[in-house]
Amino acid sequence: MPRWKELPSELPEKDLQLLIQLRRLKDRSGLGLTGLAAKTGYSRSSWERYLNGKQPVPRAAVEELARACGADPTRLLVLHEVAAEANARTEAAEPGTAHATARDEGSVGRAEKTAAEAAEAETAEEAAPPETEEPGEPRSPSRPRRAVPLWWAVGGGLVAMAAAFGAGLLLAPDDGDSGSVPAAVVYAPGRTYECADDRKDGAAYAGHSLTREALVDLNGNGRDVVEVQCLLRKQGFEPGEIDGLYGVRTKEEVRKFQARRGLVSDGIVGPDTWGELRR
């Protein structure tokens, strides 16, 4: 695979995380930009702009890329909503400065479709013919044209919930319980946490999160991560500091734990791994 272009340094951190994951998924699938365009409702030039950080990736495009690459889109959609919510807060605090301002996609496409951009869009992996459709416009005639990226049309409550889920601040209900945690337990970066030794309905809990469903992976953070680190230590594994940051060491300990319990050893904490951690 040819090397990707460096992402713009001015991109917000959450947008960078999303684009890195999208690029990795595309590379693992073996699809080129033309192949990706053939399997989705978006053109090759649109994918070139999205994956190089020139234009915000629509939520629907994130979902289509995941499905085209044979992956579950859930975690990518959570990353997308977290990035959207962060951009919305930035825009509210400093109007006009957020990365993903509400712009008409057709206007962006016309502004970017210059001779220089067309040459830059050609990558070493493919020499595709020029696109005939408007950049950024889905191929499917049934897909309605939107004046703004989809994430700006998502209700504030839904975005906030998705952001809280991704940051480990929203707890999943457990067998009808409200899923609440003592108000004093609030995640904040730059500190460490104590681990409780509790049980609820026969399951182990460390006092930070009641979830059995949340997906936790590398670079994640929040109360769900604190809970994972505490439960790993309780099971005899050593994730390092209980700081709520899902780094390389924590992921490696999760891999070891999964291997010992006969699970898929991918380092990603999902429902099966939660079930074993809470035993």
Describe the structure.
This protein is mainly alpha-helical. It folds into 2 domains: 13-164, no CATH class; 168-277, Orthogonal Bundle (Muramoyl-pentapeptide Carboxypeptidase, domain 1), CATH 1.10.101.10. Helices cover 43% and strands 2% of the residues. It has helices spanning 13-29, 33-39, 44-51, 59-68, 74-93, 105-112, 115-121, 156-167, 223-234, 248-260, 271-277, and strands at residues 198-200, 203-205. The chain has a two-stranded antiparallel sheet with strand order 1-2. The model is unreliable at 97-154 and 159-185 (pLDDT under 50).
List the helices and strands and how they pair.
Elements: H1 13-29, H2 33-39, H3 44-51, H4 59-68, H5 74-93, H6 105-112, H7 115-121, H8 156-167, E1 198-200, E2 203-205, H9 223-234, H10 248-260, H11 271-277
Antiparallel strand pairs: 1-2
Helix pairs in contact: 1-5, 2-3, 4-5, 5-8
